Amino acid sequence: MALAAQLPQSCIYGGLRLMSAFGGAARQPSDKLGHVIDCGSATRTEGLRNSFSTVAMPSAETPQCQNSTSSSASSQHIAPHPGLKPKLSADSFEAHGHPNYSNVYLEGVRPTHLQPEKLYQHVGLHAIQAARWIFDRATGYGPNMTEAKWLQRMIFLETVAGVPGMVAGMLRHLKSLRTMQRDHGWIHTLLEEAENERMHLLAFFELRKPGPLFRAAVIGAQGVFFNAYFLAYLLSPRTCHAFIGFLEEEAVKTYTHALEEIDAGRLWVDKPAPPIAMQYWGLPPGATMRDLILAVRADEACHAHVNHTLSKLKPDEANPFAMGASQLP
Ligand SMILES: [Fe+2]
Ligand SMILES: [Fe+2]
Predict the structure, then answer these.
(1) Measured in angstroms, how far is the CA atom of residue 30 from the centroid of ligand 1?
(2) Is 200 annotated as a binding residue?
């Protein structure tokens, strides 16, 4: 796949993050899967395999599993919970179950563009180009923006960016419930994207607290965009994923612009990264805003590739980014 060839590293790192977004150990899916089922019951089925494969469950070494199998009737029994994370080895690709990119990869991310071929791709591209044109003019985007203006833009856009993954994940979840059919591994990848965007928002929010007018605009935008995206996804999921793919391409461009400003000494000179970002991305001591923007840009590049890929799949095709995949397409 041409896009994959352009983004091999982002796919590897981002994909590992996506595959293990809920604590999964991407290197040993089968081991983890077996332990998961052993914790709670004596048997497992093929149906369970898929639904459990993307949630975090304790490994066999965790106290929860040992307790549940050795003294199931005792008061020490602790029921395993999907939110529990397995222990990670020191050389894990993840830090605390979150993205952890290499410096070489982070510095190498560049804006990319998927040339639209199909009608739904043209629709997605033109929609995002129109949205960006309007938003850029409404907010005065351009050269020599102040730190406050950058943060205003980033915070607002990240409140919007966290919506599509949640809407798509929710709709696929509901469809699976009402049709009583499997989801083919899409839901957790979509929800993970939403959470990742929310972490972008919370990181930038540490640097600037919006006022009541800004918050009102966020509420209004969410009300409109959530409903519009909800309806659009019902009509054409393919077009929606293409739209998000092109949106994320724009995000990579914008964060690359921010990095150029930082490197030119016009933005966040040696400003420390906020603690929440240090924790989420596992940034080293002394990390600055430049490190944070590098990590966010890498996330956006990953989202672009994931959504462009999903847009080309039929809704009942297996998600190639789901747990158990050893290499991303
Ligand atoms: Fe984002
Ligand atoms: Fe994004």
Answers:
(1) 32
(2) yes
